[in-house]
């Protein structure tokens, strides 16, 4: 749906975006991650036809953004970092205004407004002036203005910045819902947001793409040894020895052993080995009561920090 090829944007000496290439497919929710100043906003401004690149090109649905700028804009809904709103208008008038600018036929205004108000949860504020709204509601109106023309692609630059946890959760679930039908690019540096909503992650640092994959892929490729946390109950004293004898176990660390038989371990295993089944069988053979067993994952935050700090 979106194809970015060798995109570069320089400001004087500064390469804000440096030879970036990636594709986004229809139905993807792409998390575009990077630290402050990494080049996220610059990249999406080029995709949305707000900025010309220094070199390279972008296609949206097969259309080049320079040669077919107007057609491309019709296909895209864009929520910039600061939602573009007229604070003296009320929500309804503003939505109608954006619809007319976006070329939605007048006879469809009523139906489309109803749909958008429903999707973005604006029913309670529809008659209120935008300037009076709380930040969360303004952000929702920003999202609504991006969607009035029912675009195939939605590009959202930090859509949840400044929102309270309830509103964040609502906007995230809204993005997830929208992602079922649309192609979404979500710029953010909030990692739980990406984990909660995105099927794919692109990490940009100093203008260059440094990682591309699903959150799970990134986590597993940056995970060194596999770690398993184990909690069991037994009075037998040979648990560490028996665990250490399992194939692919490299280190057994006993975290806790209390008088009532509760024992906690961290097992370090060979890379790529999943020992949970074998541990389960060992526990059954020895009559250990297995209370908890889980794989410890490198968090997306660790991956992000590894890739974006020198
Ligand atoms: N108009 C401009 N003139 C000069 N430099 C600019 C301009 N716009 C952006 N930059 C620089 O380009 C780099 C990338 O900025 P950009 O806004 O794309 O980062 P970002 O990843 O969106 O960061 P943030 O997370 O802080 O929003 C920064 O170093 C920024 O200072
Ligand atoms: Mg930005």
Question: How would you describe this structure in keywords?
Answer:
single chain; 310 residues; alpha/beta; Rossmann fold; Alpha-Beta Plaits; 6-stranded mixed beta sheet; 4-stranded antiparallel beta sheet; 30% strand; elongated; binds adenosine-5'-triphosphate; binds magnesium ion
Order of helices and strands: EEEHEEHEHHHEHEHEEHEHEEHEH
CA-atom Rg in angstroms: 25 Å
Which fold name is given in CATH as the topology of the largest domain? Rossmann fold
Please count the helical segments: 11
Mean pLDDT: 90
Bound molecules: adenosine-5'-triphosphate, magnesium ion
Q: Can you list the strand order of the major beta sheet?
A: 6-7-8-3-9-10
Low-confidence stretches: none
Q: How many E-type strands?
A: 14
Fraction of helical residues:
25-40%
Q: What portion of residues belong to β-strands? A: 25-35%
Query: Given the C-alpha coordinates, what overall shape results?
Result: elongated
């Amino acid at each position: 749906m979106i194809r970015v090829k060798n995109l570069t944007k320089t400001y004087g000496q500064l390469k804000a975006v440096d030879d970036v290439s990636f594709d986004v497919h229809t139905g993807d929710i792409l998390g575009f991650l990077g630290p402050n100043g990494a080049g996220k906003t610059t990249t999406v401004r080029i995709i949305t036809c707000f900025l010309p690149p220094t070199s390279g090109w972008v296609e949206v649905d097969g259309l080049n953004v320079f040669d077919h700028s107007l057609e491309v804009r019709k296909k895209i809904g864009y929520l910039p970092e600061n939602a573009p709103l007229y604070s003296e208008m009320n929500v309804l008038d503003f939505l109608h205004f954006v619809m007319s600018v976006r070329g939605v036929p007048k006879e469809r205004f009523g139906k489309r407004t109803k749909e958008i108000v429903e999707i973005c949860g604006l029913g309670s504020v529809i008659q209120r002036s935008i300037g009076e709204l709380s930040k969360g509601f303004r952000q929702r109106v920003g999202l609504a203005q991006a969607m009035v023309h029912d675009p195939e692609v939605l590009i959202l630059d930090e859509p949840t910045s400044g929102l309270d946890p309830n509103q964040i959760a609502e906007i995230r679930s809204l993005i997830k819902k929208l992602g079922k039908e649309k192609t979404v690019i979500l710029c953010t540096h909030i990692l739980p947001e990406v984990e909660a909503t995105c099927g794919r992650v692109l990490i940009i640092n100093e203008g260059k793409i440094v990682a591309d994959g699903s959150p799970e892929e990134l986590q597993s490729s940056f995970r060194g040894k596999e770690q398993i946390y184990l909690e069991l109950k037994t009075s037998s004293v040979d648990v560490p020895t028996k665990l250490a004898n399992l194939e692919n176990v490299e280190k057994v660390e006993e975290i806790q052993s209390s008088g009532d038989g509760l024992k906690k371990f961290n097992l370090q295993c060979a890379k790529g080995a999943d020992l949970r089944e074998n541990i389960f069988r060992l526990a059954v053979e020895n009559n250990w009561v297995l209370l908890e067993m889980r794989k410890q994952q490198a968090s997306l935050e660790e991956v992000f920090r590894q890739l974006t700090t020198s």
